[in-house]
Amino acid sequence: MNIQILDRLAVLWGERLAGELALDRNGAMRFTYARSWLRDPQALPISFLLPLQAEPFEDRACKPFFENLLPEEWQREAAARALGISPGNPFRLLKALGGDTAGALTFWQDDQALSFDSTTRTPVPLDDADLAALFGRMAQRPMLAGEARYSLAGAQSKLPVVLVDNRIALASDAQATTHIIKPEPERFPGLAANEAFCLTLAKSIGLAAADTEWRFGGGRPFLLVSRYDRITESGTTRRLHQEDFAQALRVMSSRKYASDGGPVFRECFDLVRRAATDPETEILKLIGAALFNLVIGNADAHAKNFSLLRGDSGEVALAPLYDLISTVGWPELSNRFAMKYGGARTLDDMSGGSFERFAADAGGDYEMVRARGLLLCERIMHGLEMGLDTPGLTDRSAVSALATLIHDRAGRISLKLAG
Predict the structure, then answer these.
(1) Within a domain: 310
(2) Which among 21, 147, 217, 319 counts the fewest CB atoms within 10 Å?
(3) Residues with Cβ within 8 Å of residue 397, at least 6 apart in sequence
(4) What is the CATH number of the domain that holds 136?
(5) For residue range 68-86, what is the model confidence (pLDDT) as tens digits?
(6) Kind of pairing, strands 5-13 and 105-108?
(7) Which of 100, 244, 300, 323 is catalytic?
(8) Whole-angstrom Cα distance, residue 166 to residue 194?
(9) pLDDT digits (tens, 9 = 90+) for 197-245
(10) Phi first, then psi: what are they for 111, rounded to 5°?
(11) 59 is catalytic
């Protein structure tokens, strides 16, 4: 039975048409790869679970991938309210917000897709008053809904931007953004410094993590994050494709937590084993990432906080780490892990047996995981003892309590592993 199509969006990978996303009169979405895309021997699938094929993918198969490109929770609700759209209608939200998303894809009406010009407006750097006004607009209209076409996943206030002479600017039309700003919420003072510190710490011990800088402007601290899914060469920025683990495992964003039926570590490691070009290397990276989150006390490391990044030649690897925050320092936040470590919900619950079961979930040898954990804790403690310079943050005392908390956790975990 043919169902009437109400609306269509062209799905572009970079500046090439990859396919079409359609909405039918029953509110269901359908994605179909473009014939030209399928004829290209170099073309790649937009998702691990949406392989290249001529037949369309129905709503159940494609909706989790596309829905996960959108803001979440109150951010989505506020953006939808500003647009006069139901927060439960991902197609309409992508139509309104999908001009710049995570990864390589953008969404356009057919006439826009074939004729957009990313050079129509030169970005203008914002002064301090402009930045304060921007933060105010972001609180009322997440992603500047109705003013611009940006979309980033997550429940925290953020906005994709570009830099002009190292100053914040809003991107023009179809221009690819290069950075993300995250204003510090009043409810969690010190959050920007916390995340900047944790990302810097990860990089200092050899983990791949997003470049970040703490800044103050517009009357408040904020985090400036360099987008790892963008490459700028000779003044031109290209989008790299990525998908987070929820997308790659066909899980809706509302189920990103394991406690809500979302992915657990075993499924994450299995995904990397099946999807990565070099599974052995990437599994070791994921083990390191999981253990680092454990040490810093990031209880919010759910499936959407890990991603697969696809290179220009199609190779798939674990994306650099992002959203690294030590959450356990805020008593109003749960200290229960988003994904259990070997069945343990908190650090207090963990024992040597927990690490053995975690190693089994990773499909690895316990002694290898134990050795990597001990080395990671040693490097973290040494780095903290030597002092860590967080880009933009000149006052180390702002993160002294955090450094002490992480050092103590590293020591506790070392004892559990040594026992």
Answers:
(1) yes
(2) 147
(3) none
(4) 3.30.200.120
(5) 999 999 999 999 999 999 9
(6) antiparallel
(7) 300
(8) 22
(9) 999 999 999 999 999 999 999 999 999 999 999 999 988 899 999 999 9
(10) -70, -35
(11) no
